[in-house]
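User: Run a structure prediction on this.
Assistant: Running it now.
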Amino acid sequence: MSAINILVFVGLAVVTVILFAGVLAMYRGKNSNKYMQWRVIAQGAVVLFLLLVLLWRARG
């Protein structure tokens, strides 16, 4: 498994953990907006990284 695949997996794991933390906070009646904001940021970073990898591999 290449380093790029590992980074993508780690990024997806981070997004998943943040998502479940936000859902748990919502279930407990706490403010989950911060968790969801961080999820969107992390998810956007993972998507951007995936696009950059695809562009890099297409040129190489």
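The chain has a mean pLDDT of 90.
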